[in-house]
Amino acid sequence: MKAFLKKLKKNPYMIAGLIITGLIVLMVIVGLFWMPYEPTKMNASEKLQGISVKHIMGTDNMGRDVFSRVMYGSRITLLIALGTVTIGVVLGTIIGALTGYFGGILDEVVMRIIDAMFAFPSILLALVIVSVFGTGWAQLLMSLGIAFIPSYARIVRGEVLRCKGMDYVESARLQGVSQFRMIFVHILPNIKGVLASSILIGFNNAVLAEAGLSYLGVGSQPPYASLGKMLSDAQQYMFTVPSYCLCPGIVIVLIVLGFSFLGEGIRRWK
Amino acid sequence: MKYIIKKFFSMIITLVVVSFCVFLAFNVIPGDPALRKLGTEASPELIAQVRHEMGLDDPLIVRYFNWFTSFIHGDMGTSYNYNVPVAGMVLNKVPITLTMAIMSFVLTILVSIPLGIFTAKYENGFIDKAITMINQIIMAIPPFFSGIIITFIFGMIFKLFTPGGFVSYTEDFGGFLRYLIFPSVAIALPKIAMTVKMLRGSLIDEAAKDYTRTAFSRGNNTNGVLYRHVLKNAMIPVITFLGMLLADMVAGSIVIEQVFSIPGISRILLSSISNRDYPVVEAIIMGVAAIVIIINLLVDIIYRIIDPRIEITD
């Protein structure tokens, strides 16, 4: 513990990352049990107020409390980011490990498809899925998850190819280990370091993508709050009530910043 | 040459895979386009006739083939809602998106390369540390949020442009470019931060290699080594990265157009999605994807010209 604190002291990125991410997660957890106001409750007599004791982030054009909506929106954003990265990592790892390990025609075909997916911008994929299946957070989660598979598949495939020729794999093979066990018990644990840093980057990208798509109005639908949609609603009131627009925007920035500081901190952790 | 041909074929394969997936996605949607066109009152015979005219009773693969070949010839289908050719609705918007992407690309190169060289040259100095820190923060700001802030600061406080006052390139080309500077900055900001970080890291890695020491020992000064030897090698990964960025900027402009209320392809795309005007959505998605894929091919070729050591891998 002492050694940990000593290392932490020399790593300002880690400290900043832990504090920012900690605060955001705390806000979301508190929001599960208590919010100052109902995030969807409108109040015509209190619309477009600035920052005050009663509403610490002011109110929106329908008199809803911005802070409560930010609490709810951050929850959705984090859940979608978590889901996206989970889908991407699990399916990407399976695809990458199998193609990398077995190679051959399967590898060739799957990699061509992965290349094609890689060339297809994730925002377009999301828009295709939304226009086919309709708008909503589930569609958003599905499209972002699919969009994240190729990058993880490529990373894992490359690593598996690298590990395949190593002595420990050879010795496991001589012991008669099954192919399934070889991939998932022997090889995969050895690439978790590479995977860990790409997971944090993935979180960042997922939060940014979710915010961008919900800004376009294809994420969770009104009256439920999402950070991106709040920004697009707030844009026209930027001059009259800057807090309405700035607060959700700054929260998005803080979520991303927290993860990127954590990533940077882990990279510098020696 | 062999390399270019191989890359070209792999691009064609990518295009076919992508276009087939897009086509498939829009053809499994429930609902009959012929019924849509005629209304629910139409007689079954008429519907059957129109279905035949629209080619809807052909097998899927034939329909895909027809769609793909007419797409290449510039016929992108007919809008359900406006009953006009999609090509006419979309093609005149393409210059807006492309201009914006190219402007932000040029901006990214102009700012990030000097800044990247500077931070690497004064590694761990005060300014380097400050820029690295600011970079982390800028990378965390989504372009649409910086776009809103730019509109606020430069549009509403300094009045350098009128928010929402977009002028078309056919009316006033200068005014068109002036208006697009601000959205381009919003797109470029996080990309500049990424490129600076990338170039700095790449320069520092290269500077630690043996040939750098050799170049120094032959009596070169820092600038000589940096510009004649290290920079050339350090640029190789950065160029691949820049290529990915250009493709990214084309797709990213969809969101930014919305922030600056530019009547580009983004507006048609989003309204067509909510109106379920599938031929329009299909054409735009396919068009943007094709642009992105072609950019990727060009980057691969340029990359090969710069660094002939690149072998065909995979």
TrEMBL record, chain A:
Signal peptide: none annotated. Keywords: Cell membrane, Membrane, Transmembrane, Transmembrane helix, Transport. GO terms for cellular component: plasma membrane. CDD domains: TM_PBP2 (cd06261). PANTHER family: D,D-DIPEPTIDE TRANSPORT SYSTEM PERMEASE PROTEIN DDPC-RELATED, OLIGOPEPTIDE TRANSPORT SYSTEM PERMEASE PROTEIN APPC. Belongs to the binding-protein-dependent transport system permease family. This is Nickel/peptide ABC transporter permease protein. It comes from Butyrivibrio hungatei.
UniProtKB/TrEMBL annotation, chain B:
It comes from the Bacteria. It is found in: Cell membrane. Its main location: membrane. The chain crosses the membrane at residues 12-29, 96-117, 137-161, 173-193, 238-260, 280-299. The keyword Repeat does not apply. One of its GO terms (cellular component) is plasma membrane. Keywords: Cell membrane, Membrane, Transmembrane, Transmembrane helix, Transport. It is a multi-pass membrane protein. Residues 94-303 form the ABC transmembrane type-1 domain. PROSITE patterns: ABC_TM1 (PS50928). Belongs to the binding-protein-dependent transport system permease family. This is Nickel/peptide ABC transporter permease protein. It comes from Butyrivibrio hungatei.
